[in-house]
């Protein structure tokens, strides 16, 4: 019996111990975190009310502009307007009368070799055959040409023989007379810009690449403006990059209107429009700058003929000026022949006569084409294009 009681007591003790262990382990476990508090929700601002629901505005202190402290040195804000584009200043070219006389010193610096060489040879005590051959060589070297050289030498030989005495003054006067005769003072060297039927005079400028056609056209515009004409420029050189921009710059400087088309467009169309606008504006002259082309390229030359025909549908051509680089010498004569066949040249413009050019090319090209040299270029200045004057030109050749 005692054993049973002891077993029951032990069982109770064991159960009590186990119950304490279980309770203790439960107490040692972390409690779960409390649920998050609900976020504060800010009520949206109330919408303004109108009518009876409107609130009475609250009085708030306000300051006048005089009471507001401004930063030191601050002034009123000024809004600057972008400067308006200024129109290019119109230049007034110098008058053309006597321009070649004013430029004679520049011409004589490069041409005196011809005149001085001839005077030196003619001043020899004995003019034998060797001396006359040297005179011929001097003239040929100056690009005078074979036939004009032979004619000049024959006349000089006859007059020197008849004259007898040969003082420097007499020889200079003799040479001057013969050279003027050879240059051709009787030729009409006027740049015709008056259309007998009314309307503007139409001038087309042609030539090979690199002779300075666009520059010459711009300078010719200055010559005509200086003589009181209004001018329209036609930028028919649509193949060379920036050719139209270059021509328009020349025109803007003297107030000439420029007609242009898209780059690579039809040059005949531009030329046609230029003449049309010139007639509408009652301009005095229309100058058409054409693209440079090799005289050996048949297709390009045919296209030049097309430009001429299209222009003549609007108005007759009064001038076709061929621009020649005077430094090319006899090669320029080959170019001149081809252009004369295609577009009927009426006048010559010789450029770069202030460089290494020989003055005799004036005589040779006139003799070859039968048309006069009307203008000569004597430098890169805007007013260095001068009407050709035989007397002033010969005086520059032989010096004072």
- Describe the global form: elongated
Distance between the termini: 172 Å
Q: What level of helicity do the residues show?
A: 40-55%
Q: Mean pLDDT across all residues, rounded? A: 79
Helix/strand-derived category reads alpha/beta
Summarize the main sheet.
8 strands, mixed
Radius of gyration, whole Å: 48 Å
Count of β-strands: 8
Task: Note the beta-strand portion.
Answer: 5-15%
Enzyme class: hydrolase
InterPro entries: AAA+_ATPase (IPR003593), P-loop_NTPase (IPR027417), Signal_recog_particl_SRP54_hlx (IPR013822), SR_rcpt_FtsY (IPR004390), SRP/SRP_N (IPR036225), SRP54_GTPase_dom (IPR000897), SRP54_N_sf (IPR042101)
Binding site for GTP: 207-214, 289-293, 351-354
Function: Involved in targeting and insertion of nascent membrane proteins into the cytoplasmic membrane. Acts as a receptor for the complex formed by the signal recognition particle (SRP) and the ribosome-nascent chain (RNC).
